[in-house]
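Homework help board

Subject: predicted structure for assignment chain

Our instructor gave us this sequence and asked us to write out the predicted structure in token form, then describe one feature. I got the tokens but I'm not sure how to describe them. Can anyone check?
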Amino acid sequence: MHPGSRSRRLALAGLLALLPGGAWAGDTTVARVDAGPATVILSLQRREISVERDGMRFGPWPVAVGAPESPTPRGTFAVLAKTINPLYESTSTGVVHRAVGAASPLGERWIGFLSSGGDDYGIHGTPWPVWVERREAVSHGCVRMLNADVKALYDLVDVGTPVLIRD
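My token output:
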């Protein structure tokens, strides 16, 4: 799942290179957060996510993760983009779903952490909270959170924040 086309991501990368300290690119936030360094930590086994910042831990919040046939990638990544009310574009059909906000398949926030082979992986909200509440493995590799929780996470991280995904 992803909130936009490859050309939009490349344009965003160009903006990041040209505008140190951040800027707005459409609805994608690339502004810095005025706080100390943070790290996002996702435990796939516990299916929970938290943020460590300035010696404090925020969360953990429950998540739904990638299905066995399309698992959430493991490793160390970084926040590549942050988007408020992202548009969902199907990776299989290319169809853009016009619903935004809480009704969107991506919910109210997108925190992208990996772009690979035409697919984008991110942490995002969902209009189907039961999947998160049950901590299901249902997505195409993304990490789904309750919309209120992903808003809190969104406010704690910046583009460049490390994202650690482990078993």
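Reply (TA_rk): Your tokens look well-formed. For the description, you could write something like this. The domain at 6-166 is CATH 2.40.440.10 (L,D-transpeptidase catalytic domain-like). That's the kind of observation they're looking for.
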